[in-house]
Amino acid sequence: MKTKLKPGSSPQDWKKGLLALNHFWKAGYMPDDMERHFFLTWFALSEGRILQAVQAMQLHRNTFQNYLSKFRLARQTIRLRRLWQNLDDGKGAKTFGTRMGAYYKKTTPKPALTPEQNKALIGLWKTGIPSKMLMPHYVLWAIRAGKSREWIRKKLDFSNRHLIRVLSRVAQPKSKDHFWLSPLKPKATELYLPRYQTRLKKRKLA
Fold it and tell me: Which band of pLDDT confidence, cut at 50, 70 and 90, is reported for residue 40?
C-alpha cells in the first residue's frame, strides 16, 4: 500500500510539526518522551474510544494497551475518557488544540508544550505519521546538529549495524522513512560516511 498523508491533513502542518520536534531533541528529550503526546492526541481525537483510536493509528489493540502501560496509564482509560469529555473552562466550546493542550498538561509531567508546539504536533500526528518515525527523525536531527555516530549510538542504545540500517532507510527515496521525513529533504550525502560518496554517485544518490 502506498504511503500517503491522511485525507484533510496539510503538507504545511506536516513540515511545521517535523520542525517543532527539533526543539525537544535539542532540549535533551528522546523519541519516547514525545510518543505520549502522539497517543493522547489520537485517544482524544477518538473521544476515548480505544477501537477507534487503534484503527486511526493502524495499530493492534494489544500494542495500544502496551503503550498505555509504558506511560503508566493502563486501567485508566475510563478516567482519561471522562477527563477529556468533561474538560471545559466554562467559557463555551474550545478548539481541539486548546482543549488538547489542557488535557496534555493535566496528564503529562513533561515535556511542557507551548500552545504553538502543541498545535504543530497535533497537525503532524493528523497526517498519519507513525510514532515509530520519531526515532529516524531524531537520528536525522542529530546528524544535522553535528553529533557523532558514536554519540547517537549511545543515546539510542544502538549497535553500529542498527544505526546504519536506520540511516539507509532515511536515505532511500522509496522508503517509508524517507517519505515521512521528506519535507526536511534528507540527502544520502549527509547520512553516509565520506568513504561511500563514490558509491552514492554511481547509484545517482549524490
Answer: very high
